[in-house]
């Protein structure tokens, strides 16, 4: 039984991952994911696809997770800065940001209740990954604190994905 389907990776991206530019491609894809611009593949497939196509030895796995954390954190910081500069109404008007007013209010509540922990926590969770970036950007949160908390959550998420892939016997079909 295949948990993840490698067929979900666009063929052009699959060939780029498998090329000598695999790590650079991974970085770019992860920046897009962090900035909520990744629309051509599910974000939970990025690290497993990289492990399948670049390599899954211990050093390769560690490098893939590290590149993914740097990329997603950079993308989220770009979104954090955009939100801080442009404001709430701008974000709600943009179709590329997957958030409605009611959904944003829910994430505002998470951020109000948990503060920076909500940034790290949401980055570890499927489906809400990175959405607390918006209320964080609208708050008085320090950019450095945001980067650290975003990286912690991304490290958790990417490590879980890598572990599931590696411990699951490479269940990509």
TrEMBL record:
TM regions (residue ranges): 21-41, 61-83, 146-167
Keyword Transmembrane belongs to the record: yes
Principal location listed in the UniProt entry: membrane
Family annotation (InterPro entries): DedA_domain (IPR051311), VTT_dom (IPR032816)
Domain of life from the UniProt record: Archaea
Record has Transmembrane as a keyword: yes
Location in the cell: Cell membrane
Membrane topology: Multi-pass membrane protein
Pfam families in the cross-refs: VTT_dom
Chain ranges of the VTT domain: 42-162
One Gene Ontology cellular component annotation held by this UniProt entry: plasma membrane
Keywords on record: Cell membrane, Membrane, Transmembrane, Transmembrane helix
Name the UniProt record assigns to this protein: SNARE associated Golgi protein-related protein
Organism from which the protein derives: Halopiger xanaduensis (strain DSM 18323 / JCM 14033 / SH-6)
């Amino acid at each position: 039984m295949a948990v993840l389907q490698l067929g979900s990776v666009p063929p052009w991206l699959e060939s780029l991952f498998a090329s000598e530019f695999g790590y650079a491609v991974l970085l770019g894809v992860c920046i897009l994911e962090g900035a909520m611009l990744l629309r051509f593949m599910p974000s939970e497939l990025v690290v497993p696809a990289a492990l399948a196509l670049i390599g899954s030895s211990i050093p390769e796995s560690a490098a893939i997770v590290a590149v993914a954390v740097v990329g997603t954190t950079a993308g989220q910081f770009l979104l954090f800065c955009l939100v801080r500069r442009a404001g709430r109404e701008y974000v709600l008007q943009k179709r590329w940001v997957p958030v409605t007013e009611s959904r944003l209010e829910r994430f505002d509540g998470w951020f109000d209740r948990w503060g920076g922990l909500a940034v790290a926590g949401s980055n570890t969770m499927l489906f809400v990954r990175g959405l607390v970036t918006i209320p964080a950007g609208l708050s008085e949160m320090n950019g450095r604190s945001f980067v650290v908390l975003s990286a912690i959550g991304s490290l958790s998420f990417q490590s879980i994905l890598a572990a599931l892939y590696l411990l699951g016997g490479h269940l990509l079909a």
